[in-house]
């Protein structure tokens, strides 16, 4: 199966052909995929070299002239390194862009911590008005990229990962999807975590929601799910643990509730190796998740 | 019978008075006015933008990157009719759209909000790219930075990119009041020239020299004008 990132250049190249507002801004990374598109649209496929502050600032300048910039590099260099540009050049200037990252939390473990960015969404959470898409499959990535580019002048972040579920679901760019219904708690699986969460909750009487658009947080679907399943909520996110805990708490603010946030740990592992080894180290494999979810919902554990 | 004249055209001589509406003081030190002459020459003689054309895609863009001490900027915008003169006395107050750093969302005619240093030039690069991508080859993009602001690495990224990219719609004015802690005399123009820009250093108080430098041809290359004014400590 191809990866989400494999879809990025072909999808956005088609959007460049279809929509004269679309422009792509790169900082060397991902350039090869746009070779043909750059030939067709030399002024709308822009490579600024290894300059990430300029990457975001130039994207903002393009937006000020009315274009729809799609800005891409690895998450660490897209959100973290030029964070003030994201905050001021886009947010404060009141213009939008589509930021598309690759590498996710630990897509390249042997590359080490310099190329890991589990905190990207938590960091964006300090800013106002961002839509955040976390696809769990290349087909979903394609759909959500199209949603992102078509979203007027909104500020949209699309987080691409090599981690993926086996099958794509019909995502709509807004709502959580109800995958399974139960009565003993709600588990929200985000993006590539779905397959593992379904394996981990096999035989548990829980509702499983699938989220690929996590900001704005779909409070309505979560609340509706708690009506039948109760207000014990577990979030399983492929990035920093607890990133959406506040959002879930806000959604249930007027109800007694409990929230457990699972995800990538804050502590730097200082390990290389394989993705699976990092998944296990962060307790995000099916066995560990089953233990932690089951433990949290222990009073109500039910066998199917 | 008395007649009331509504003043429609402000001149350079009116700027100290307009700045005085903000500060309550008509005597302004060099720091407050370091940008005044360059701004006036641009808005009075160079930029093709008016309040009526503030949304015209074909207008010239002026991006104030050095957002500190914007009184001269507001005075020029008021003199040219972008903002009402009666906004000036509220400068910096809660109800005023005119803050100690400008906000493009609040100030008519302000192309960007600025204050945090090192953002204007990269945004100006993107603006020039965006105009070019839309076939808008006439509008020129101007950005005003301070000499110490050039210490910001983001500016180095923009300078190093814009020369080889041949962004000849892009123009930078550097107000050099010797405020950078580590600087070589003549180093500003040299830095831009090394990156492929057309560069000239002039007396930042000499309107004719500024005008000539602002309007000199520079085919295929971005242009920087270093406007030297009194040292910040003077």
Automatic annotation (TrEMBL), chain A:
In terms of InterPro entries, this protein maps to: PDH/Transketolase, THDP-binding, Transketo_C/PFOR_II, Transketolase-like_Pyr-bd
Provide the Transketolase-like pyrimidine-binding domain boundaries: 2-168
Protein name, UniProt field? Transketolase
Entries under SMART domains matching the protein: Transket_pyr
Q: Which organism is it from?
A: Streptomyces liliifuscus
Do you know which Pfam families this protein is assigned to?
Transket_pyr
Q: Which domain of life is it from?
A: Bacteria
Q: Which residues cross the membrane?
A: none
Q: Can you name one GO molecular function term for this protein?
A: magnesium ion binding
From TrEMBL, chain B:
Q: Tell me yes or no: is Transferase among this UniProt entry's keywords.
A: no
Q: Which domain of life is it from?
A: Bacteria
Any idea which UniProt keywords this protein has?
Thiamine pyrophosphate
Q: Which cofactor does it need?
A: thiamine diphosphate
**Can you name one GO molecular function term for this protein?**
magnesium ion binding
User: Ranges for the Transketolase N-terminal domain?
Assistant: 28-216
List the InterPro entries hit by this protein, alphabetically: THDP-binding (IPR029061), Transketolase_N (IPR005474)
In terms of Gene3D superfamilies, this protein maps to: 3.40.50.970
Similarity comment text for this entry:
Belongs to the transketolase family.
PANTHER family recorded for this chain?
TRANSKETOLASE N-TERMINAL SECTION-RELATED (PTHR47514:SF1)
Q: What is this protein called?
A: Transketolase
Taxonomic source organism: Streptomyces liliifuscus
Taxonomic classification, please? Bacteria, Bacillati, Actinomycetota, Actinomycetes, Kitasatosporales
